[in-house]
Give the backbone structure.
Amino acid sequence: MKYIKIIAIVVTIMLGTTITVSAISVRNTDNILNGYLQNPSIKGSSTEYHFGSSLYYKSFINSNSRYYNETLKRGDENICGNLYINTSNTNVIITTFVYNKSTNGIKSLIQEKQYKITSNSSIFNAFFPKGKLFSSGHQINFGNNVITINNETTICTATQYKLNYNNKSIYYIPYNAVVSSVPNVFTEYDNSYFFSAMYIQSNGYSILNSISIPGNSTITALILGNIGINTSYFTMGMVKTNDRITSINYTYYIEQYIPFIALMWLVGAGYLVSLKVKRGKN
């Protein structure tokens, strides 16, 4: 009877320690996010993206384009820049800085644009669709493109899905999606890999994390300042945000303690076996 009590005590201690360690790792992650804004529609919300675009030969159909009279080879012009979305009391400000990156790596500013939209506009809803994206097949309009949610999963290693909040990193589970309805596809990138997007869940909203569009896109044209792009290969990824995300990959944090937990259970099991051996000799 005494041996059974010892087993119960040891197993209880090990279970309690395992649960406590897991709970602490989850709590510490949530504490990092405390104080951040609940969703992108709240005043003070700020999200930054970095984008790049390879322009297609003779893709400049707008006479206002600085490229209109130029004859370009495919890939000669590589555009990059940053996009900032900031929410105020009455509207949302979108600011873009577009650069032309030359072969020697030096960037020159093509243009800076600023747009005022509302949190109910189609553009805002493209970046931050309202509601949750739990259902596979959920569709989001991204200008003249359509984003279709596939599932919530980590395709790559967990460390590739992280956001930095000051000096802390938050690991999340993204919603993977496919971009469809892409006119004038950039033939060099006509592969399913390049028709992709990812969202992250926030409270009441989702946040666009990354997107890849190998062809015509009205929102791409807006971001690039309506410089007459008809076809391009456009990619964009989130750099940072001050919005709290809710699709946290808690499993990643718990896994960090697996060596300690495994060692504890190994030592505990060894201790119980040694007691049993001694008990058998007596």
Observations:
- Confidence is low (pLDDT under 50) at residues 70-76.
- The first helix runs from residue 2 to 33.
- The chain is about 25% helix and 30% strand.
